[in-house]
């Protein structure tokens, strides 16, 4: 079981990649290790590393490798994100992809090929580091594919699959090339891991990260299938400012269980029963969670997530608050850190450390999967595809309400199973599912499971 932190540099925020300081980075990473974390996720800015479509800066790649080395000196493994992309309301898209040179990020052949070159080079630059946890294609890159982004790149689901496959292949190729060049034994591709169950294995993983529109917005071209079919683990990012806190209150069940719910919802799309599930980004946003409630929110969110089967890790957002000297951030971004900008441990940081020390470093016992599963109607009874599935799964939707009713009734959230897979009894058995439950028309009933059991084939 992994406990980690997303590193937000305390000096210069992510602009610090422009004038990288090993000493500032070391100070931050030492503080993160002091929180009981075993890994960090880092975010080199895409335009800094690849400022021209055919220029990948060796010095920038070396800076990334240096961060991995510094982290290792404090006992931290590192996950490297490639395409930044988008961070805390700011976009970091290279100039060769915007304005006068604007081309579709996901479909233009030259752009896709050049982006793959960058991902491959970045992966190769860190492949031989023994503390490399993995490479994530980018931070919520699906937000570029549809509204509410102000200038999205139009994309279809099939085009999204082709793009994701190309990026994952590039990352794996880079890991293999880098490992081979250094003479290390591990291929770095993560392919050996795909047949293994959680926790995250030691060899580097390749993952695809999406924000929750993938599960909640039917118009978003990147969907659950992209998360479950590409890479070596299914990644979720859980934020209760998406409506959960407004509906349920900061410490209501629908908020503190949101991470657990999203993990179970995402796992429903996995085509392998033991595919790892990674809560790669979750935090306590103070625009909807009072500062006084943030430590309790942190603890409850973590404890509920720990009930999810095959949970590989929890990576908190983020390490440090954004400095007030930097302008134009949404207000919540200035107060998301586990540490203040000058390095003091905040109450949320203290609570995170308590959880990491209690359950990290081999002290977490993986739970048996919940035996009850709520049926998600991805198809009609005749097998025809259904629309509206994702909207129904969003906070306030009928499916989300039914899941929460069962979770509060049993004390542990149920698994989720797709209706299209109900007849695959071997798959259900492999997931430990013995009872399937349909969503009732009235989700306020307390006798949900008894009143509406799904017939097992």
How would you portray this structure in words?
This protein has two domains: 358 residues, Glycosidases (TIM Barrel), CATH 3.20.20.80; 83 residues, no CATH class. It has 16 helices and 14 strands. α1 runs parallel beside α3 and α10 runs parallel beside α11. The longest helix has 26 residues. It comes from Curtobacterium salicis. This is Glycosyl hydrolase.
Order of helices and strands: EHEHHEEEHEHEHHEHHHEHEHEHHEHEHE
Fold-level CATH name of the largest domain? TIM Barrel
Biggest β-sheet strands, sense, barrel: 8 strands, parallel
Radius of gyration in whole Å, from Cα? 21 Å
Quick one: CATH superfamily of the largest domain? Glycosidases
Q: Strand fraction band?
A: 5-15%
Structural class of the helix and strand makeup?
Answer: alpha/beta
Question: Concise description?
Answer:
Helices cover 35% and strands 14% of the residues.
Keywords for this entry:
TIM Barrel; alpha/beta; globular; 16 helices; 8-stranded parallel sheet; about 450 residues; 2 domains; 4-stranded mixed sheet; single chain
Q: What order do the helices and strands come in, and which of them pair?
A:
Elements (H helix, E strand, L loop, with lengths): L1 E5 L15 H13 L4 E4 L3 H4 L8 H16 L3 E7 L2 E2 L2 E2 L17 H18 L5 E7 L18 H26 L22 E3 L5 H4 L7 H6 L4 E5 L5 H5 L4 H4 L1 H10 L9 E6 L11 H12 L5 E7 L29 H13 L12 E5 L12 H5 L4 H13 L4 E4 L6 H6 L4 E3 L10 H4 L1 E2 L3
Parallel strand pairs: 1-2, 1-10, 2-3, 3-6, 6-7, 8-9, 9-10, 11-12, 11-13
Antiparallel strand pairs: 4-5, 13-14
């Amino acid at each position: 079981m992994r406990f980690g932190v997303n590193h937000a540099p305390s000096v210069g925020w992510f602009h610090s990649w422009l004038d990288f300081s090993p000493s500032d980075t070391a100070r931050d990473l030492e503080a993160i290790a002091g929180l009981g974390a075993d890994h960090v996720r880092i975010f080199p800015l895409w335009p800094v590393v690849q400022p021209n479509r055919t220029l990948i800066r060796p010095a920038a790649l070396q800076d990334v490798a240096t961060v991995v080395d510094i982290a290792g000196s404090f006992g931290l493994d590192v996950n490297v994100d490639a395409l930044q992309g988008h961070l805390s309301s700011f976009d970091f898209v290279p100039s060769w992809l915007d304005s006068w040179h604007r081309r579709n990020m996901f479909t233009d052949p030259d752009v896709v090929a050049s982006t793959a070159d960058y991902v491959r080079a970045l992966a190769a630059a860190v492949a031989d580091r023994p503390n490399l946890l993995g490479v994530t294609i980018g931070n919520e890159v699906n937000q570029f594919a549809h509204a509410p982004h102000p200038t999205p790149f139009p994309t279809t689901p099939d085009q999204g699959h082709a793009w994701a496959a190309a990026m994952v292949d590039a990352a794996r190729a880079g890991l293999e090339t880098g490992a081979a060049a250094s003479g290390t034994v591990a291929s770095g591709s993560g392919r050996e891991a795909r047949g293994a169950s959680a926790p995250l294995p030691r060899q580097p993983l390749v993952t695809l990260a999406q924000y929750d529109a993938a599960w909640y917005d039917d118009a978003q071209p990147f969907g659950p299938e992209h998360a479950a079919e590409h890479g070596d683990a299914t990644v979720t990012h859980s934020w209760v400012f998406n409506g959960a806190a407004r509906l349920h209150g900061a410490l209501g069940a629908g908020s503190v269980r949101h991470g657990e719910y999203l993990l179970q919802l995402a796992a429903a799309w996995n085509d392998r029963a033991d595919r790892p599930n990674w809560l790669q980004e979750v935090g306590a946003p103070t625009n909807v969670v009072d500062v006084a409630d943030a430590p309790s929110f942190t603890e409850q969110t973590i404890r509920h997530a720990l009930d999810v089967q095959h949970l590989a890790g929890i990576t908190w957002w983020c390490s440090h608050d954004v400095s007030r000297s930097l302008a134009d951030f949404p207000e919540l971004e200035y107060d998301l850190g586990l540490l203040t900008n000058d390095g003091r441990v905040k109450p949320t940081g203290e609570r995170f450390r308590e959880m990491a020390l209690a359950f990290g470093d081999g002290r977490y016992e993986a739970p048996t999967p919940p035996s009850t599963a709520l049926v998600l109607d991805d198809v009609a009874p005749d097998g025809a595809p259904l629309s509206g599935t994702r909207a129904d799964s969003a906070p306030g939707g009928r499916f989300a309400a039914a899941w929460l009713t069962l979770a509060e009734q049993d004390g542990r959230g149920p698994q989720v199973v797709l209706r299209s897979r109900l007849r695959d009894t071997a798959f259900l058995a492999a997931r430990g599912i013995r009872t399937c439950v349909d969503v009732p028309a009235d989700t306020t009933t307390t006798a949900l499971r008894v009143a509406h059991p799904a017939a097992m084939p």
